[in-house]
Structure formats: structure tokens, C-alpha cells
Design a protein that fits this description.
The chain is 57% helix and 0% strand. With 144 residues, the protein is an all-alpha fold. Helix 1 runs antiparallel to helix 2 and helix 3 packs antiparallel against helix 4. The longest helix has 27 residues. The chain is globular and about 45 Å long.
């Protein structure tokens, strides 16, 4: 994606929303109920991974567009955006951790800890449990 193509950003944002809604639909209320090798855990992990990957893609494109340099890794995209004032530092830190989750899913799936995925303190599914209307309410750097 060259620059920040508004139509493509809209499509990615809608895809992220759909994936997070799917996570919220399949995520058990009790973290102990999310167990490996079940339809629920497969759906939660797949959709969370896809949502995180889409956010990573947007962040890397934003770094290039805003001439922040080429990120060295996924987490670096979020740190560069935060350093330039486009993301709050706390959000950048959470997204950097989410990129680590993405790497574990992609490269070491068998090492996933379902309690960490399910939404305990710092759990990967916390984004899917945000109140309705809060996701997407704060565009990157006010860019619309």
C-alpha cells in the first residue's frame, strides 16, 4: 500500500472489527473454559491473529507514509508511531505485546498458554471485550 489509502484503511479497519467481534462471540466468559484443541479456541486464536496482523499491516504502512523509517520488526512499527506522537505510549506497548502474540501463533502455536489468550491480566483477548463503540473510535493520529 503506497501512502495511506483511505479505502484500504477502511477495509482493514472493517476486517479488524469483524475479527474482534468473532473473538468476542466465541470467547467463553470464564477463562478456564478456553481450552486447547476446541472449536472455540481455534476460532478465538485464528480471528485474534488475523486482527493483530491487520493492525500490524496498517502500522507498517503508516510508518512508511509518515516517513518514520522502515520498522525492524512488528513491534517497532508501534514504537515508531508512538515516538512520533501518532499513538499513545500505552497503546503502542499493548500493540507491541499483541505482535508478540502474533509471532507465537505463527511460529510456536503449541506453546500458547490459553489462560494468557483468554483475557486474564494482560490477556490477548482484552481488545475483544472492549465496550461497544470503543473500538475504532480513536483513529491513528486523528487521521480519517
Amino acid at each position: 500500500m503506497s501512502g495511506l489509502d483511505r479505502a484500504l484503511m477502511g477495509e482493514k479497519t472493517a476486517a479488524i472489527e469483524r475479527h474482534l467481534n468473532r473473538v468476542a462471540q466465541r470467547l467463553p466468559a470464564d477463562p478456564d473454559e478456553l481450552v486447547p484443541m476446541t472449536d472455540a479456541s481455534d476460532a478465538v486464536i485464528l480471528h485474534l491473529w488475523q486482527a493483530v496482523q491487520a493492525v500490524i499491516d496498517l502500522a507498517a504502512s503508516a510508518c512508511v507514509h509518515f516517513r518514520l523509517g522502515t520498522p525492524q520488526n512488528y513491534g517497532d512499527s508501534f514504537q515508531r508511531l508512538a515516538a512520533a506522537g501518532f499513538l499513545a505510549p500505552g497503546l503502542a506497548a499493548r500493540l507491541t505485546r499483541a505482535s508478540g502474540f502474533r509471532n507465537v501463533v505463527a511460529h510456536a502455536y503449541e506453546q500458547l498458554d490459553m489462560k494468557q489468550v483468554s483475557g486474564g491480566p494482560g490477556g490477548a483477548c482484552r481488545l475483544a471485550r472492549l465496550p461497544e463503540g470503543s473500538r475504532g473510535a480513536h483513529p491513528v493520529g486523528g487521521y480519517r
